[in-house]
C-alpha cells in the first residue's frame, strides 16, 4: 500500500535527447535522386519531341498530292491515227498518251498548238505517270477514244512542291525547277478549281517510281506485312516451344547452360550478320529468290527468335513454383501442368516479348539490304516469293534521293512506320490487359 | 445421443487401430540434396485411416520425408531418394509405377495456400477433370459440391463458385486447397503445415476437417504446433537432424515419451 503512494506522480515521460540519424542528409539524397530522374525524363521527352516534330513537320505534306482535273480529249488522231487497234492491240499500249494530256492542258490554258516552248512548259506540269493512267483508261474501255472525258491527273512533282510552297520563288528563274510561267498557270488553274490538293492514296498503293509524285510505300507495306506474318507464324511457336522445353523439361546441365549462353549471345549479334547468314543459307544454298519477302521473313525470324525465347523464359520463370507444385501434386502430368497452368500465366509476358520482337523486326533494315530487298520494285508482290521491299528499306532508299518531293515522302514513310509501331505496341498493351484480367 | 454415437465412432476407430494395417511403409529411407544428406535411414510406417503427425525442429527433414511419399521430390533438381517406400505393397519408386497415378492416390496440401488463379469451381474440378472422374457436367457439379462440403467451405462459397479462388481469405484458400485434394478421392492426403498461415478460427476449422477426413482417408500432417499434433493425430513421429527419433501413439508421446530428445522438444527445451 505504501509503495503505491510513494511511486512518482504520473506525468509525461521526459523526452530523450533527439538523435541525429542523418534524416536531412537522407532526404537531400532522395530529392537529388528525384531531380536526376526528372531531368533524365525531361531530356528524353525533349528528344522525342524534336524527333517527332522534325519528322511530322517535314512529312505531313506527303499525305496530300496536287492533282489537275481537266477535260481530256482522247483524240483518235494521236492515239490511233490509222485505225489499227482491231488488228494490232499493241497500238493502244504504245500510243503517245502524254501528248494527249499535254494538249488537253494546253487547251485549258489557251496555249497555241504551235507554241513549242509553251507546250514544253505545259508538259512539265503533268506527271509522266499520266502515260500509264491514260493507257489503263483506254485499254479498259477503248470506246472512249474520240470522246472527251474529265480526268484527274497527277501534277508533276516539281509543280506539287511549288504548290505546297516548298520552292523558293525569289530564286532566279533559271535556278529553279518551275518557271514563272508555270507558276502563273498553276495559280490560274488553282483559282478555277482545276488544280487542287487531294488525299494521297497513291502513297499507300503505289510501288517504287523514279517520279516522286507517283512513288508510294504500297510495295513496301505489303512486303513488310508478308515478313511480319512469316516472323509471327514461325518465331512464336518455335520460340515458345524452345523456351518451354528449356525451362520446364530440359535437365539443368552443362549442355543446357551452353545453349542458354548461346541464345543470349545471339540476341546481341548485330543484325547485319543475320543478313549475311540469310544470304548464304537461304539464297545461295537453298536457292530461294533474291529480294523476296519470304527470305526477308526467314532472316528476321532468325533475328527475332532469341528475343522471343529470352522473353518467354523470363515469363515462365516468373510463374510462382507453387502453381506447378499444386498441379503436379494433383497428379497432372508435366505437360498438363505447363499447358493448363504455367503457360496461361506466362502469356502476357510472352505476348509482350513477341510484339517487341516483331516491332524490332519491322524496323530492321541492315539484313534486308544484304538479301537484295533494296530494289526498285514497282509492282505489288502477289506472293511472298515475289520481289518486294520493306518500309524501313523504302525510307532508306528515298533518303538518298535529292528531289524535294522525295524528302517529304521519306518523312511521310517514317510517319507510316511509326504509326505501325505505335499500333503494335498498343496491341501489346491491350493483349496484356486482356490476359491479365483473367486472374 | 449424438455425443454417444460420436464416442462410439471414436472407439471403433481406436479398435481398428489395434489390428493395425499399414497404408504406407517407409524402409531405410534416405534423401540427398546433391551432396547434402537430409534424411538418414528413416523407418516409418503410416497406418490406414489414421492421422500421423510429423514433428521436430525446423530443418530436421519433415517436409523432405513427406515429399518422398508422393515423389514430389522428383521435381527438385539434384534430389535423390534411396530405400523403399510402399503404398499398399506397391513400391512407389519402382520404375513401373506411374508417378501421375501415384499422385492421384497420394494427394498433397501445401504449407502456403496455392489455389490456381481460376474460379473456385475450376480449382476443385481440375483434378477430377484431368483424371476423367466425372462423365457429365452433373457428376462434376456433385464432386465439386461434395468436396467443398468435406472441406467445410461449401456454405461460404456456394453462391460464388465462379468467382476467383484467389479472392478468398487465407483460411478459405487453404480449405479450398484441401477440397481440391479431396476431389480426386486420394487414399492418402499429405499436409505440410497446413495451418501455418491461418488464424486460430480457421485453424480450428481445418483441424475439425482433418478429424472428419480421417474416416475416409489416411492423413500425414507436418506441424510445428504441439497442441495441434496432440489434437488431431493418433500417431506422432519425431524427427531430429534427419533422423527419426521416435514414433509412438500421440497420447504416449505427449505424456511419457521414450526418448529424452522428444521430451526436451515437447517441453520446448530446443527447437
Ligand atoms: N530443395 C532443397 N535443396 C537443397 N536442400 C534442401 C532442399 N529442401 C530442403 N533441404 C534441406 O534438407 C533439410 C531438411 O529440410 P526440410 O524442408 O525437410 O525441413 P523441415 O523439417 O520441413 O523444416 P521446416 O520445419 O522449417 O519446414 C534442410 O537441411 C534443408 O536445408
Ligand atoms: Mg517444412
UniProtKB/TrEMBL annotation, chain B:
Q: Which Pfam families match?
A: ABC_tran
Q: Which GO terms describe its cellular component?
A: membrane
Q: SMART domains annotated for this entry?
A: AAA (SM00382)
Q: GO: which molecular function terms?
A: ATP binding; ATP hydrolysis activity; phosphate transmembrane transporter activity
Task: List, alphabetically, the PANTHER family matched.
Answer: ABC TRANSPORTER I FAMILY MEMBER 17 (PTHR43423)
Q: What is this protein called?
A: Phosphate ABC transporter ATP-binding protein PstB
Gene Ontology biological process terms, A to Z: phosphate ion transmembrane transport
**Which SUPFAM superfamilies does the UniProt entry name for this protein?**
P-loop containing nucleoside triphosphate hydrolases
NCBIfam families in the record, alphabetically? 3a0107s01c2
Q: What is the lineage of its organism?
A: Bacteria, Pseudomonadati, Pseudomonadota, Alphaproteobacteria, Hyphomicrobiales
The answer on whether this UniProt entry bears the keyword Transferase reads no
Chain segments annotated as transmembrane: none
Q: Name the UniProt key words of this record, in alphabetical order.
A: ATP-binding, Nucleotide-binding, Phosphate transport, Transport
Superkingdom field: Bacteria
**Record's family?**
Belongs to the ABC transporter superfamily.
Question: Is Aminoacyl-tRNA synthetase found in the keyword set?
Answer: no
Amino acid at each position: 500500500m505504501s509503495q503505491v503512494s510513494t511511486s512518482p506522480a504520473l506525468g509525461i515521460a521526459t523526452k530523450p535527447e533527439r538523435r541525429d540519424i542523418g534524416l536531412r542528409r537522407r532526404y537531400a539524397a532522395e530529392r537529388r535522386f528525384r531531380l536526376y530522374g526528372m531531368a533524365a525524363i525531361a531530356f528524353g521527352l525533349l528528344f522525342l519531341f524534336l524527333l517527332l516534330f522534325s519528322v511530322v513537320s517535314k512529312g505531313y505534306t506527303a499525305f496530300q498530292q496536287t492533282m489537275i482535273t481537266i477535260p481530256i480529249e482522247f483524240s483518235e488522231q494521236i492515239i490511233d491515227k490509222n485505225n489499227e487497234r482491231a488488228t494490232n492491240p499493241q497500238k493502244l499500249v504504245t500510243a503517245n498518251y502524254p501528248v494527249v494530256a499535254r494538249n488537253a492542258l494546253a487547251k485549258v490554258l489557251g496555249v497555241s498548238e504551235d507554241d513549242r516552248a509553251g507546250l514544253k512548259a505545259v508538259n512539265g506540269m503533268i506527271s509522266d505517270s499520266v502515260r500509264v493512267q491514260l493507257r489503263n483508261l483506254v485499254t479498259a474501255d477503248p470506246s472512249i477514244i474520240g470522246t472527251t472525258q474529265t480526268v484527274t491527273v497527277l501534277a508533276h512533282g516539281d509543280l506539287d512542291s511549288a504548290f505546297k510552297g516548298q520552292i523558293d520563288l525569289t530564286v532566279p528563274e533559271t535556278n529553279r525547277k518551275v518557271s514563272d510561267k508555270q507558276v502563273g498557270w498553276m495559280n490560274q488553274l488553282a483559282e478555277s478549281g482545276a488544280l487542287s490538293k487531294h488525299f494521297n492514296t497513291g502513297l499507300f498503293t503505289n510501288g517504287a517510281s523514279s517520279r516522286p509524285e507517283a512513288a508510294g510505300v504500297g510495295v513496301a507495306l505489303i512486303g513488310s506485312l508478308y515478313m511480319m506474318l512469316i516472323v509471327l507464324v514461325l518465331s512464336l511457336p518455335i520460340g515458345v516451344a524452345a523456351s518451354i522445353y528449356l525451362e520446364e523439361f530440359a535437365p539443368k546441365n552443362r549442355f543446357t547452360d551452353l545453349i542458354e549462353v548461346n541464345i543470349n549471345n545471339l540476341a546481341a549479334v548485330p543484325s547485319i550478320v543475320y543478313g549475311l547468314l540469310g544470304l548464304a543459307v537461304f539464297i545461295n544454298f537453298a536457292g530461294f529468290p533474291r529480294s523476296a519477302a519470304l527470305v526477308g521473313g526467314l532472316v528476321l525470324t532468325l533475328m527475332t527468335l532469341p528475343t522471343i525465347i529470352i522473353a518467354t523464359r523470363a515469363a515462365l520463370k516468373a510463374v510462382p513454383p507453387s502453381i506447378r507444385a499444386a498441379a503436379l501434386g494433383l497428379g497432372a502430368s508435366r505437360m498438363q501442368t505447363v499447358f493448363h497452368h504455367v503457360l496461361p500465366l506466362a502469356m502476357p509476358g510472352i505476348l509482350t516479348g513477341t510484339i517487341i520482337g516483331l516491332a524490332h523486326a519491322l524496323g530492321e533494315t541492315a539484313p534486308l539490304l544484304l538479301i537484295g530487298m533494296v530494289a526498285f520494285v514497282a509492282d505489288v508482290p502477289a506472293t511472298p516469293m515475289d520481289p518486294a521491299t520493306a518500309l524501313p528499306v523504302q525510307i532508306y532508299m528515298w533518303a538518298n534521293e535529292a528531289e524535294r518531293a522525295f524528302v517529304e515522302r521519306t518523312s511521310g514513310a517514317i510517319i507510316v512506320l511509326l504509326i505501325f509501331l505505335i499500333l503494335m505496341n498498343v496491341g501489346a498493351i491491350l493483349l496484356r490487359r486482356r490476359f491479365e484480367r483473367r486472374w | 445421443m449424438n455425443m454417444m454415437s460420436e464416442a462410439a465412432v471414436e472407439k471403433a476407430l481406436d479398435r481398428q487401430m489395434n489390428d493395425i494395417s499399414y497404408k504406407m511403409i517407409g524402409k531405410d529411407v534416405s534423401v540427398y540434396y546433391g551432396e547434402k544428406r537430409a534424411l538418414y535411414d528413416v523407418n516409418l510406417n503410416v497406418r490406414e485411416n489414421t492421422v500421423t503427425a510429423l514433428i521436430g525442429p525446423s530443418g530436421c527433414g519433415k517436409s523432405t520425408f513427406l515429399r518422398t511419399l508422393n515423389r514430389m521430390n522428383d521435381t527438385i533438381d539434384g534430389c535423390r531418394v534411396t530405400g523403399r517406400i510402399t503404398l499398399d505393397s506397391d513400391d512407389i519408386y519402382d520404375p513401373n509405377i506411374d508417378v501421375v497415378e501415384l499422385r492421384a492416390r497420394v494427394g498433397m496440401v501445401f504449407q502456403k495456400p496455392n489455389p490456381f488463379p481460376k474460379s473456385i469451381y475450376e480449382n476443385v474440378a481440375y483434378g477430377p477433370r484431368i483424371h476423367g472422374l466425372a462423365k457429365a457436367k452433373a457428376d462434376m457439379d456433385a464432386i465439386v459440391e461434395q468436396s467443398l462440403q468435406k472441406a467445410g467451405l461449401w456454405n461460404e462459397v456456394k453462391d460464388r463458385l465462379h468467382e476467383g479462388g484467389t479472392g478468398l481469405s487465407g483460411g478459405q484458400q487453404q480449405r479450398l486447397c484441401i477440397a481440391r485434394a479431396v476431389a480426386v478421392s486420394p487414399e492418402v492426403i499429405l499436409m505440410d503445415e497446413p495451418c501455418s498461415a491461418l488464424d486460430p478460427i480457421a485453424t480450428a476449422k481445418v483441424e475439425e476437417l482433418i478429424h472428419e477426413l480421417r474416416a475416409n482417408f489416411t492423413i500425414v500432417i507436418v506441424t510445428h504446433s504441439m497442441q495441434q499434433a496432440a489434437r488431431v493425430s493418433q500417431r506422432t513421429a519425431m524427427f531430429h537432424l534427419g533422423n527419426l527419433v521416435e514414433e509412438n501413439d500421440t497420447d504416449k508421446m505427449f505424456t511419457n515419451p521414450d526418448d529424452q530428445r522428444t521430451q526436451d522438444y515437447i517441453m520446448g527445451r530446443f527447437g
